[in-house]
Inverse folding.
C-alpha cells in the first residue's frame, strides 16, 4: 500500500482529501461535539491542541502507509464535515476496516453514504482489498442503516471493553466483499 501521492476523491457533493492544519477549526468543532462520541470509545476533545495532535498523528499514519484517512469536505460550504478511513489493514488477508463520522447537522442527507461508496471503491479497485469490515455499536441505528443500505452484511457480534471509557461496547461487525 502506498498513499503517496495522496488520493483525492471528488464526488458530486464532496471532496475526500488529506486533512491539514487548515482544517483545525472544522475538525475541532466536530471532535468537541459529544454526540460524535456517543457510540465510540473516544473522548470529547477539550482543546484545539488535542485536535492538532490528532491531525498530525493521522497524517503520519498515512505517510507511513499504515492507513488512509480522508477529510470529508462539503463542496458547497467548503467546510470539513467528517472523516472516513480504511485502517487495520491486513496485507495477508487483503482486508481493512472502515471507520467514519459526519457532524450531526449534515446527517440524513446521503452525504456519508456518498463518501462511503467512494472510499469502498478505492479500497477494492485501487488497494485491491478482498473485503472491508465495519464495526458499529449495536444501538447506533443510523450507522447500521448506512452499512446495510451499502450492502454490508452482519457477520458477528463482539463485546469490546473500552480503553478511553470504562464501559463495554456491544459491537456489530459488518462485512462487504469485493
Amino acid at each position: 500500500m502506498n498513499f503517496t501521492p495522496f488520493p483525492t476523491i471528488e464526488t458530486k457533493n464532496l471532496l475526500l482529501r488529506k486533512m491539514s492544519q487548515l482544517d483545525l477549526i472544522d475538525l475541532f468543532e466536530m471532535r468537541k461535539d459529544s454526540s460524535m462520541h456517543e457510540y465510540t470509545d473516544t473522548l470529547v476533545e477539550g482543546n484545539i491542541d488535542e485536535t492538532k495532535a490528532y491531525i498530525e498523528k493521522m497524517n503520519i499514519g498515512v505517510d507511513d502507509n499504515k492507513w488512509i484517512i480522508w477529510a470529508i469536505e462539503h463542496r458547497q460550504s467548503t467546510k470539513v464535515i467528517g472523516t472516513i478511513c480504511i485502517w487495520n489493514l491486513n496485507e495477508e488477508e487483503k482486508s481493512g476496516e472502515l471507520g467514519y463520522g459526519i457532524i450531526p447537522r449534515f446527517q440524513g442527507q446521503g452525504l456519508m453514504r456518498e463518501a462511503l461508496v467512494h472510499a469502498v471503491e478505492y479500497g477494492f479497485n485501487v488497494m485491491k482489498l478482498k473485503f472491508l469490515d465495519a464495526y458499529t455499536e449495536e444501538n447506533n441505528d443510523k450507522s447500521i442503516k448506512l452499512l446495510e443500505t451499502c450492502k454490508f452484511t452482519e457477520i458477528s457480534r463482539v463485546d469490546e471493553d473500552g480503553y478511553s471509557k470504562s464501559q463495554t461496547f456491544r459491537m456489530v461487525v459488518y462485512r462487504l466483499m469485493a
